[in-house]
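cron nightly-structures :: item 1 of 1
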Amino acid sequence: MELRDYITVLRKGWVLIVVLALVGVAAAAGFSLLKKPVYSASAQVFVSTETSGSASDLAQGNTFTQQRVLTYSNLVSTPIVLLPVIAKLQLDMNADELATMVSATAPTSTTLISISVNDTDPVQAANIANATSQSLTNVVQDIEATDAEGTSSVKLTRVKQADVPSAPVSPNVPVNVALGLLVGLALGVAIAVLRETLDNRVRTEQDVEKISDKPVVGGIAFDSKASERPLIVQVDPRSPRAESFRTLRTNLQFLDLGTGSRTFVMTSSVQSEGKSTTVANLAIALDSAGFRVILIDADLRRPRVAEYMDVDTNAGLTDVLIGRAALEDVAQPWGRGNLVVLPAGQIPPNPSELLGSRAMQELIERLEKEFDYVLFDAPPLLPVTDAAILSKKASGAIVAVASGKTHKGQFAAAVSALENVGAPIAGYVITMMPVRGPGAYGYGRYGYGYGYGLEADEDTPKVKPPKRGGKKLGALSRAER
């Protein structure tokens, strides 16, 4: 991931990051409020050694004292020191429990021992610290070596008495809140990055390019009302989404397919990726540019073109392929231009065989002579082989890829399904592209959008899609078109 990828991740997951940061702050604040305050009191003991007063004796005594200080500081938490403290203060605990409250430190190169006690009672903390320092003094006096007169050569003197603390040392609310904030932010960022890293769905054009070197010929924005107005090019031709279909139309004109024919099979990896609405709107966009176009519903399992284009479904492609009807009788003119729609007809028991038949090949050859563009709406590639079989007979396949829905594995498998049969791939169309949020795509690449003379005028009447029952197609001749 590059720096801009991380920035995009942060923009996508900012809500999660903020929520976890607030949770961290709330948890830290709650912990600080619920935790009982702890007070700390400290006493300090000075360790000295009695010498004769000569310089050498003083140096030796100082070295000896520093060596003993560490031993004495470790002695503070032992029962021999703490049991007299418990007895003196009449504490309701044993030596081990008291040892968890008492700590001793000896600063380097000094002969001082600091004894600290943490307790929820400030008065008791001070009393325990003072009693422990006195007990340590007595224990060292008893166990250290003595001279002939019974006097110890080491002397401990309390130089600082523990005072009753006025403010608790724990919990430290500002520090806890800051720590909770940092932990929440770190956790939010980690989850956002992990989620992006583990996301195996196709979202951007770069994801497509990593799987196939074929071009992305168009991008269609997500429209929550697509089911209500699937033919956006006809219903609202000034909308940015309609402009994206016109951009797709332009890109197809510049594709170098190596053949003079322009026969495209629109398919996808799985269902519900917007292939049918895409090919229907593309057909209308090509028709509006003056091209002779025929739109054929080759999805002989779940046909949708007739529903979108609002044409008769009694007879169609299957009837032509089996010789039950002539093409002129079932192909239906649509609108006022040169667009012809051939519905699927009756659903057959052998769709793959029909699409791969010699009759289909002959039909394509005929249509390529009479139309500028021949567009097929084919089934998805992964569930069935229909689209792969049909694409091999066409100029190229156009694969619809739903942004944020199609998995990379599904898309790669669909590409492999076409390549395995030698079917040419004309390009890809990214559908359902987000238009809001950090992962949104502008229309600068796939369309113009508002601001370039395409502003929608509320007073401008919308063009209604044509109804069934238009003029009947007699003969598919160039003269009639």
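cron nightly-structures :: done
The CA atoms of residues 122 and 166 lie 8 Å apart.
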